Every structure is written in C-alpha cells, then in structure tokens.
C-alpha cells in the first residue's frame, strides 16, 4: 500500500455505535439479543469484547460491520464508521466497505475458506475487487504478509488449497486475507478458540504483531479473558446483551469494578490441596491401543490412580486422553496390556464385564446435551441406574432420586423436567447424579467442564470436590485446561501423541524442571497478565 | 448493571422452562397453530377414511353391480353415470377408496415392519450384518422400483396378496435406508454409550433409548411412503397389472373410462368421468403431503424439504 | 497414479459389481416361473416334443450357472434371446428376436425422454436456483406450492388433464403419439408434445425442489458468509464461490431425475399409446413374455446405474479435496 487517502490520524474516532439493539428469531418469536449497547473505537486501538456464551458478543461484532446474520435484525441505534451511516447504508454501500475498509476474521478458518480456490486467490480477492492494487502487486504483498505472519514457505504456500494446510496456518492465512487490503478495522471473532494452546500462542503472536505494525483498529471477540488481555488496549464485558463494564486492560485485570467480571476467572481462584495416597484403586499397565484399521493411538500407557484422589490427564487434541478412557471402560479393548481394578484384572471388552464391575466405574461426558436422552425426564435418567444396579423401585426409588437431587444442589421441582428444560450447568449436574446413583468407586470425567461458562464450571468443580470428600470417590479427570487441573487434581498425567510424557503429584509436575513437552504446554497457557505473551516471546527468543 | 448476582446457585440458573402439559393439550395447541394447508390436508384425509370405512353404507349400488346402460350420462339414477359395462361410477369410486387405500396402507405398514426393523438392527449392530444389509439394499435399489415390480408381477401374478408383498418388499429398501441413517445418528450419541456402559441389553437400548428419538422422522416418512405406495398401486392398476376386476379401484377406473375424454367437446361431464378417480388419487396425495410438510416444519431439524 | 483416478476406478468397479448382481436377479426371474409355464406359452395342445424342444432352446436342461453365463455372453454380443410370443403348440415358431422388438422402441423412448430432459433440466435448475436465492419470497412460496402439488399427482392424471385441455377441448396437439420409423423429425416432435410435456411437468417439480434444497444447503456454508463479508458482489458469490462447489449436488439431482424420467416414461407411453420400450414391457408383463421383460428390465436398470455412476464421477472430479490431494 503506497497511498492511504482514507486513513486519518491515530486517535480519531473510527467507529461509533450508539444504543444498539438487535433482535434474534427463535421459537417463532423475536427476542432481544443486544439491549442497547454503546461502543466507541478510535483509530489504531484494539478493543477486547468478552462475554460468555449467549452474551451477544459475536452479534455485536458483526453489527459493527452493519451486518446481521440471517435470523437476526438490527432494530435500533446508530452506527457511524468514519462518516458512513452503516444502519441506513444500502447493500452496495456496505459491500464497498467490507473487505476493503472493514475486514472479518472468523472462528473456523477451515470452514470459512472456500475449498475450491487457491489460498492466494482468496487472500487478494477483496483487494482486487475493490481495485486497490494490481494483481501482481497484491500477490507479492500477500507473500510478504505470509512471511510476516511466520507462515512456512511464504512464496509458495498461497498456491495451496485450504485443505492442504493445518488449522493454525489457516487461521494466520485468514488474518493475511483480512490485512491484504490494509483495512481500518478488523473484527476478530474468536479466532483461536478452536486451536490447541500450543498452536494458539503462535497465532496470537502473529496477529498481534501485524495489527500493531499496520496500526489497524480491531475488535477482538473471545470468551477467554487471558487471551484478550494479550491483544487488547481496553476491554468491554458483555452479559445477556448488555454491557457490564468497560476499562483499560490492566485496570480491568487488577481492579474490576463488577463482581461478574471477577467471576470470569473464578476457576483460577480454586485450588485443591494435594492429597497423595498409595492405595491404588485403578491401574492401567502397558496399554497399546488402536481403532480398527488405523494407526496405533496409544503406545505403552501406564497410569496408576489412588483411591479418593483426582488424577488429571492433560494433553492436546489427538494426544490419546479420551482413548485411554475408552480402554478403561472397555469400549475399546487394548491390543496389549491390561486394566487392573482393586488389583484384579478387568475383562478387556465391555460385554465380558459383570454388572458389579460396570457399576464401580462410571463415566461423565463433555457434552451433557448428548449424554442424556432428550425424551427422558430427570427422574427417569437418574432412576434407571438405581433400578438397574440396586433394584430400587416405587417409593424407595423416588426417595433416593430426591436425595440425589439434593446432593447435586437441585430441588424437587427438577424431578420431572426434560433435559431441554435445564441450563448447561444443571444438565451436567444431572449427569453427575446419574453417575452417583450407581454408587461407583471411580468416575471418569471426560472434559466435563470445557463446554461450560467459567462461573458454572466453578460450581461444577466445587460440587465434584465436595462429593469426593463426602463419599471418597476417585476421579480420572480428562481435560486440556490447565486452570481446571490446578483446581481439582492431586496427580497429573501429561500425554502427548499417544504416550505418557510425565506422571506425578501436582506440586511436582507443575513446578520446574519440566520435560520439553510439559514445558511447552504449560508455558503456552495464557495467563491473566497483559505482558505474558510479550515475556513468553522474549523468553522463547 | 449493578444488580449482578453475588451468590451462585445451581437451581437458579436460567433455563427454558416449559409449562407442564399433557400430550393432548400439546396437540391441541399445535393444531391451533397449524396452517390452512395442514388443516385442509387433515380434513381431506379424515373424509377419505370415513368413506373407506363406511363404503357399503354410503354407496347407492354394489361394487360390481351391472346396469343395462353402459356409459349412462351423469345425473338421474347414477350421479356420475355408468362405466363401459354399465356399473355405477359413484359406487365404484366409494368402494375404490376402500380397496386402493386399504392395499396401500397394508403395503406401507408391511414395508415399515421389514425396512424399519432391519434398519434398526443394522444401525445398532454396525458390523458385517450392517454391511451385508446395506449392500444388498444398494443392489435392490439399483433397479427402478416400478420396473422391479413389473418383473415380479410377471412371475408371481397380480393377486392382492402378491401385490402387497411385492410393493412392501421393494419399498422397504427406502424405509431401511432412512431408518438406518436416522438411527445411526442416534446410536453415536453419548446417552446410548452411557446405556451400553451401564450394561443394558440390546433390546432395552433399542426400545427405550433409540426408538423414541427416531419416531418423528419415521412418522413423516410414513406419510410420504404411503403416498408413494398409493401412487405405485394406482399406476400398476392403471397399467392393468395391479388390482384386478371386478374389484373397484381408482387406477383401473381411469384406464377403463379414458376414451371418454375425447368427447369433451360434446359432453364435458362424460369426459370428466375418468378424471374423477384420477383427481381423487391426486387429492389424497396432496393432502398427505400438506400434512407431512407441516409436520416436518414442526419437528425441528428437517426445516428444508429435500 | 493420481488418487482421483483410483477413486474413479473404484466407483466403476463398484458399478460393475452392482450390474453383475442386478443381472443375476433379473436372470433368476425365469427360475421362479411355475414349472408348467411352457404349456402356458405354447398352449395346452403342445406335444411333448414341442415342449422338449422349447425347453432345450431355453437351455433348461443345463445347470443354472451355465445358463447364466450363456445369457450374459449373448447379452454382451447384443443377443437378448427370443420372444415367447408367436409360438404355437404345433411347433411352428413365428417368434421374433427380442433385439428386433426392442431396438426401434428403445430409440423412440430415448427420443421422448431426451425431449423432456432438454426442456426439464434447464428449467428446473433455473427455478430451483432462483427459488433458493429469493427464499421465503412470494415467488419462492408460489413455486414451492405449485411443485408440491404437482409431485402429488399421478403421471396419468397430469397426462389426461393435458389431453383434456390441449387435445380435446382445444385440439392443438394429438392425443395419440403414434409414430413410426418413417415419421419425419418435426412431425415426431409435434406428436410427442403432450407426452413430453407430461414428463417435463413431473420431473421439473421433483428436480426443482431438490435443487432448491441443495443450493440452500450450500449457501449456509461459512465460506459463503465469509465471501459476503469480504464485500464480494452477489453475482460473484454465486458464480465464483457457490457454483464450483455445487457441481456434485447438482449432478446428483440431475441423475436422480433422469433416472426417474426413465421410469415415468412407462405410464406416459401407455397413456399416449406411444410405441416405446415402456409400453413394450407392460405388454410383455401382461403376456408373461419373460425374455422381453428381462431385456427391458436390464436396459432400465443399466440406464439407472450408469446415470448414477456419472453423477458420482462428476462429484469426484469436481471435489477440490480429491483434485488437489495433500
């Protein structure tokens, strides 16, 4: 870019949204999604837009472009983008701004790139459409952008098709695409949410540097406060379509004025005192496993779990955490190795295990939505294991169900509700009650909190800890979230590419010296410190 | 924005609570909201069924009763006149409702019994049995079903029983495919895995976990398959290979009286005689389609027709 | 070898295997005939010698698998056997070769189906794509309601409605499509107008609905939203971003409906007394002329399989993931 006729000075107001209201259509009615939010962004500033699911942050971010998804409509307020009224703009006027002066970076890069075209052609499409540069100039500029975003082989990577590069690379590619026309404003919509932590770091660094270099204003949308702290100059917190507070980043982290803002990192405030025991309840020995007809996913996995403790299994996607759980439950009989329960070997396949053996190991799933039959009531869901394992019926069963509801802090009004009438946290609680109903010794928790908002996560984790204390239950806790590991575990198993990298008490694993991979994993977890990313980059060189 | 919650309570979390209602109340509410087309469809279907059930009471003459004047004009003793050998068209129309719909209903039920049952078994077993059934169905479906039906009718002849069996077996391939694909999407759900981990028997899983969740698409499919079977039987009868005389049937009635269309310029009512049974077939399929369309819109997920 | 070739070869092989099983099913039709069918064909008065000669001609003295291979062998060389009709109990054989019966009629059927297809495919694609683009407008609703009604109609109802209006009340087209080998092209088109129109109406309804659903599905992709947010114009979103990914679903829709056309032709030919293969098959079923039924079924099934195979292959060669492997 040589001439920037439309670029004003840094510090001028670029975007001003006033009293925005947006409605969404569901259940055959229009419901308010955004209820009167103001937003002001100056040139060269990065704003973090943070909130939990359903807060309306993506809707608001898209509205900053004058766009509403199908099923949404902007019902009130004003949007002024550098003198353009985006509310009353025609489609053609909006289109003239989109891709050239306002660009969008979507959450799922894999789905947002057109599979039929080369990456380079897609990168420069808006620039050429807008007549900003010649094809050659735009393409060589794109290659330079690739290089500055640390993409491998920047001269040729653009000749590839979207499915030929990795997810982290695609996400950087999309940033290059947004940057190609040197827009005044980029909307980043949860750009790293779908990535593993170690990949996320690289993408964050690349995005931050390039936005800084070209002095582009940006709105960075995420649910992760630690991430946004690295990217944004100031942060706006949204909840239920309303603004909770807005403050400069450092101030928000050190002195939030609203309790709700604090609750956004509530899980980080939890920490379980370590409890080490030698009374092994479950052990897997030298397990190798593979799914039918594919390469091995587990190599010589050994894990020991002591009674009444929590062993957290951490690792990124594809590390073999969930496969380990499937081996223990008998869903995937291992190729070699065995599972010992109270010292006795368990039959490798589910169908060979006795009712008694099944009852002692229960499982809780990540998505409580799909873990409950949508056509059964809470009472039927919790009541079935009571009937099946313990033969309870009628009055006795009903009393026990109410008792279990009390244990998970829900009252009797929940007795005959259907899953669709429960919130996310309540659903997960009912799943916990179903596991408890069997009166198990071990519960396998597979990412049970990762689909939940922070404050709800905290509630679930506290419940699990209390139940462990009261009933001496053992947890095998599978997660990718280090904050959750801190909160709940006694011992930690680190897995990488199907093998165990390290196993030991939390205090040992979490403090240096670390094996290489553990070091990489732990250092990649964003911290509530605006300087964390800079320090990390300096440290890694 | 000051009144944020200070204490967290699990029971206090916001959820979409529904009012407690019985099934009957729910149905009444849904019916009230039903569009005109669905109402039209339901009323038409109800009338057809009433006519089919009470055919002998409603029909003025017998099914195969022959009168001395063939091709009698409309009005007078015979509302829609008589056909080429002097049978009362109106009476035959009424009996035709019973025969054509009865056979179509029987064939559809049988095809759901076969296709639905095997589809469910294939989805749950997911092993060689699934492979075998699926590949077999692929091959059966590679022969267009009307052509296959024609070939089988050559061999087994056109009795009512063989007609029902042939159409049911051929149509069950489509029911199999749908049941299997819907059931497979339920089988992979965590709640089915949870039931397996609990140690539940296969029958229990099928009945309690899977079946209730695949009912809505299957009910909609039943309507569509019924239309298809109904049209196939009508077509076969029209070709002279379906329901055999003297049994009254709409398809063959069209064929028998088709030549009367040529006289439209001289006597429009005569020309309309073969159009009435054809129209009766069309009206019923339109009605069923309207109801199914509405039902698909209701049961979410299948919003856009395919 | 390019992996796409491998995938295509795999599909072709699968198609051949399907064809093999289908031919096996069609062949075995004769096995299920009641034992005394020779009498039905030759008449009650047939002498034992005539019957024996007939059975020998059919090869019924040989084991079934040998007969199957002979049958397949002759089908490959274009010999579809000899019709059952025209045989007399006296042993006088005036039966004709099935090929001679089928060849002229097959041409007629292809002509009719082709005529309907040429009109129906572009029309349906146009209606389907525009209905998807202008979703939930009056236009969309009207087209939708009209097609939902049309697909509910039996083909003969549509056919007779057309005859009533365009041949009887307002006679612009003939109600009988009696063509023969010597009919000149334009007259042939004229005579086929009503049957072709019937087929077109039925096919367009189906194909339009499927196209609409496929396009709506495609337009819901995140990359289409991304293209919009990149400021790409409406036409370019369709032409450059949607179309290259639409070939596979569109090919499937077209193949499905052309296959449907092949079957729909049976009823329409009977209505218009059109000398096509569909009518031949219906006549053969009535007279239980198994060799003709088998030949017709084989032709219909093969057309069906080949059409679907072509759609599959179009889907493969336009799939960027397969075109540009990792």
From TrEMBL, chain A:
Localisation: Cell inner membrane
Keyword ATP-binding: yes
Limits of the ABC transporter domain: 15-265, 282-522
Statement: the UniProt record of this protein carries the keyword ATP-binding: yes
Pfam families assigned: ABC_tran (PF00005), oligo_HPY (PF08352)
Gene3D superfamilies reported for this sequence: P-loop containing nucleotide triphosphate hydrolases
MF terms in GO: ATP binding; ATP hydrolysis activity
GO cellular component: plasma membrane
UniProt membrane topology term: Peripheral membrane protein
Annotated GO biological process: peptide transport
Taxonomy, superkingdom: Bacteria
Keyword terms: ATP-binding, Cell inner membrane, Cell membrane, Membrane, Nucleotide-binding, Translocase, Transport
Family, as annotated: Belongs to the ABC transporter superfamily.
Protein name per the record: ABC transporter
Species of provenance: Paramylibacter kogurei
Taxonomic classification: Bacteria, Pseudomonadati, Pseudomonadota, Alphaproteobacteria, Rhodobacterales
From TrEMBL, chain B:
PROSITE patterns in the cross-refs: ABC_TM1
Residue intervals of the ABC transmembrane type-1 domain: 97-287
TM region positions: 36-59, 102-126, 146-170, 222-243, 275-296
One Pfam family named in its UniProt record: OppC_N
Mode of membrane association: Multi-pass membrane protein
Subcellular location: Cell membrane
UniProt keyword annotation of Zinc present: no
Keyword terms, alphabetized: Cell membrane, Membrane, Transmembrane, Transmembrane helix, Transport
GO cellular component: plasma membrane
InterPro entries found in the cross-reference section: BP-dependent_transpt_permease, MetI-like, MetI-like_sf, OppC_N
Example GO BP: transmembrane transport
UniProt entry tagged with the keyword Cytoplasm: no
Main location: membrane
PANTHER family: OLIGOPEPTIDE TRANSPORT SYSTEM PERMEASE PROTEIN APPC, PEPTIDE ABC TRANSPORTER PERMEASE PROTEIN
Family: Belongs to the binding-protein-dependent transport system permease family.
Protein's recorded name: ABC transporter permease
Organism from which the protein derives: Paramylibacter kogurei
Upper lineage: Bacteria, Pseudomonadati, Pseudomonadota, Alphaproteobacteria, Rhodobacterales
TrEMBL record, chain C:
PANTHER family in the record: DIPEPTIDE TRANSPORT SYSTEM PERMEASE PROTEIN DPPB-RELATED, PEPTIDE ABC TRANSPORTER PERMEASE PROTEIN
CDD domains, sorted: TM_PBP2
One GO term (biological process): transmembrane transport
Protein name: ABC transporter permease
Location of the ABC transmembrane type-1 domain: 106-311
A GO CC annotation given for this chain: plasma membrane
Originating species: Paramylibacter kogurei
Keywords carried by this UniProt record: Cell membrane, Membrane, Transmembrane, Transmembrane helix, Transport
Annotated transmembrane regions: 12-30, 110-134, 146-168, 188-208, 246-272, 292-317
Places the protein is found: Cell membrane
Membrane topology: Multi-pass membrane protein
Record family assignment: Belongs to the binding-protein-dependent transport system permease family.
Subcellular location, principal: membrane
């Amino acid at each position: 870019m040589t001439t920037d006729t439309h670029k004003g000075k840094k510090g001028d107001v670029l975007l001003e949204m006033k009293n925005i209201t947006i409605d969404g259509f569901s259940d055959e009615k229009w419901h308010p999604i955004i209820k009167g939010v103001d937003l002001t962004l100056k040139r060269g500033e990065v704003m973090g837009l943070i909130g939990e699911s359903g807060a309306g942050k993506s809707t608001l971010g898209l509205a900053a472009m004058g766009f509403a998804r199908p099923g949404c409509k902007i019902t009130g307020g004003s949007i002024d983008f550098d003198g353009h009224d985006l509310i009353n703009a025609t489609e053609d006027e909006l289109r003239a701004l989109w891709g050239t002066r306002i660009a969008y970076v979507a959450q799922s890069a894999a789905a947002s790139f057109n599979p039929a075209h080369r990456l380079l052609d897609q990168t420069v499409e808006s620039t050429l459409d807008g007549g900003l540069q010649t094809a050659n100039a735009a393409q060589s500029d794109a290659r330079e952008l690739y290089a500055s975003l640390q993409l491998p082989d920047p001269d040729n990577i653009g000749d590839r098709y979207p499915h030929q590069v990795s997810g982290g690379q695609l996400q950087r590619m999309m940033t290059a695409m947004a940057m190609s026309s040197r827009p005044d404003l980029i909307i980043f919509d949860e750009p790293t949410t779908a990535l593993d932590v170690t990949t996320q770091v690289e993408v964050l660094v690349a995005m931050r540097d390039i936005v800084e270099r070209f002095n582009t204003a940006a709105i960075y949308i995420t649910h992760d406060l630690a991430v946004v702290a690295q990217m944004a100059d100031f942060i706006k917190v949204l909840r239920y379509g309303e603004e909770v507070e807005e403050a400069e980043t450092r101030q928000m982290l050190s002195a939030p004025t609203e309790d709700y803002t604090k609750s956004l990192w509530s899980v980080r405030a939890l920490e379980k005192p370590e409890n080490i025991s030698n009374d092994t309840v479950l052990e897997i020995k030298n397990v190798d496993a593979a799914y039918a007809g594919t390469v091995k996913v587990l190599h010589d996995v050994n894990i020991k779990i002591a009674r009444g403790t929590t062993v957290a299994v951490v690792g990124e996607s594809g590390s073999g955490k969930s496969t380990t759980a499937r081996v223990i439950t008998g869903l995937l009989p291992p190729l070699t190795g065995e599972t010992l329960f109270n010292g006795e070997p368990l039959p490798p396949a589910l169908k060979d295990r006795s009712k008694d053996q099944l009852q002692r190991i229960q499982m809780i799933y990540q998505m409580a939505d799909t873990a409950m039959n949508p056509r059964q009531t809470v009472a039927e869901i919790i009541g079935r294991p009571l009937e099946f394992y313990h033969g309870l019926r009628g009055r006795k069963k009903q009393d026990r169900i109410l008792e279990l509801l009390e244990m998970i802090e829900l009252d009797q009004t929940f007795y005959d509700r259907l899953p669709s009438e429960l919130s996310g946290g309540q659903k997960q609680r009912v799943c916990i009650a179903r596991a408890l109903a069997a009166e198990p010794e071990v519960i396998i928790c597979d990412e049970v909190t990762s689909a939940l908002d922070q404050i709800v996560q905290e509630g679930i984790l506290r419940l699990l800890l209390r139940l462990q204390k009261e009933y001496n239950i053992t947890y095998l806790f599978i997660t990718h979230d280090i904050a959750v590991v801190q909160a709940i575990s006694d011992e930690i198993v680190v897995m990488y590419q199907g093998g165990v990298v390290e196993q030991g008490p939390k205090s040992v694993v979490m403090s240096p010296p670390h094996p290489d991979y553990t070091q990489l994993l732990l250092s990649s977890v964003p911290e509530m410190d605006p300087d964390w990313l800079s320090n990390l980059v300096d440290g890694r060189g | 924005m000051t009144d944020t919650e200070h204490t967290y309570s699990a029971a206090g979390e916001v959820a979409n609570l529904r009012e407690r209602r019985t099934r009957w109340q729910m149905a009444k509410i849904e019916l009230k909201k039903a569009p005109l087309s669905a109402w039209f469809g339901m009323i038409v279907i109800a009338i057809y069924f009433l006519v089919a059930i009470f055919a002998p009471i409603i029909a003025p003459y017998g099914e195969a009763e022959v009168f001395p004047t063939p091709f009698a004009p409309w009005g007078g003793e015979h509302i829609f006149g008589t056909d080429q050998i002097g049978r009362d068209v109106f009476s035959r129309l009424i009996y035709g409702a019973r025969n054509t719909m009865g056979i179509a209903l029987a064939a559809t039920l049988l095809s759901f019994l076969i296709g639905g049952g095997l589809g469910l078994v294939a989805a749950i077993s997911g092993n060689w049995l699934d492979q075998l059934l699926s590949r077999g169905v692929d091959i059966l479906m590679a022969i267009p079903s009307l052509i296959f039906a024609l070939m089988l009718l050559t061999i087994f002849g056109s009795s009512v029983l063989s007609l029902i069996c042939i159409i049911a077996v051929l149509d069950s391939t489509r029911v199999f495919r749908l049941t299997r694909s819907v059931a497979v999407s339920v089988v992979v759900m965590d709640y089915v895995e949870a039931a397996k981990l609990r140690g539940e028997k296969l029958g229990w899983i099928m009945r309690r976990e899977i079946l209730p969740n695949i009912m809505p698409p299957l009910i909609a499919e039943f309507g569509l398959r019924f239309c298809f079977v109904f049209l196939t039987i009508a077509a076969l009868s029209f070709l002279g290979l379906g329901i055999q005389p003297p049994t009254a049937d709409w398809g063959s009635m069209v064929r028998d009286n088709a030549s009367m269309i040529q006289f439209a310029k001289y006597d429009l009512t005569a020309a309309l005689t073969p159009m009435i049974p054809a129209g009766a077939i069309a009206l019923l399929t339109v009605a069923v389609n309207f109801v199914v369309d509405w039902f698909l819109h209701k049961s979410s997920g299948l919003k856009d027709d395919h | 070898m390019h992996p796409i070739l491998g995938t295509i070869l795999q599909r072709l092989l699968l198609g051949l295997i399907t064809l093999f099983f289908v031919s096996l099913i069609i062949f075995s039709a004769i096995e299920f005939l009641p034992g005394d069918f020779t009498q039905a064909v030759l008449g009650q008065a047939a002498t034992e010698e005539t019957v024996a000669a007939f059975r020998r001609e059919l090869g019924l003295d040989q084991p079934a698998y040998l007969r199957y291979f002979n049958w397949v062998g002759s089908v490959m060389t274009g010999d579809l056997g000899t019709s059952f009709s025209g045989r007399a109990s006296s042993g006088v054989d005036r039966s004709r070769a099935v090929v001679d019966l089928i060849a002229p009629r097959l041409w007629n059927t292809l002509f009719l189906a082709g005529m309907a297809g040429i009109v129906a495919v572009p029309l349906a694609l146009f209606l389907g794509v525009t209905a998807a683009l202008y979703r939930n407008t009056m236009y969309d609703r009207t087209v939708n309601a009209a097609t939902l009604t049309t697909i509910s109609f039996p083909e003969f109802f549509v056919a007779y409605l057309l005859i009533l209006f365009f041949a009887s009340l307002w006679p612009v087209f003939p109600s009988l499509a009696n063509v023969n080998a010597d009919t000149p092209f334009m007259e042939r088109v004229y005579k086929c107008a009503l049957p072709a129109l019937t087929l077109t109406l039925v096919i367009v309804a189906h194909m339009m609905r499927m196209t609409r659903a496929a396009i709506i599905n495609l337009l819901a992709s995140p990359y289409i939203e991304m293209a919009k947010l990149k400021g790409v114009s409406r036409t370019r979103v369709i032409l450059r971003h949607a179309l290259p990914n639409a070939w596979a679903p569109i090919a499937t829709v077209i193949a499905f409906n052309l296959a449907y056309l092949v079957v729909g032709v049976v009823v329409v030919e009977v209505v218009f007394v059109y000398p096509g293969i569909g009518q031949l098959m219906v006549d053969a079923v009535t007279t239980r002329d198994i060799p003709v039924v088998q030949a017709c079924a084989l032709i219909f099934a093969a057309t069906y399989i080949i059409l679907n195979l072509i759609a599959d292959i179009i889907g493969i060669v336009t799939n960027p993931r397969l075109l540009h492997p990792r």
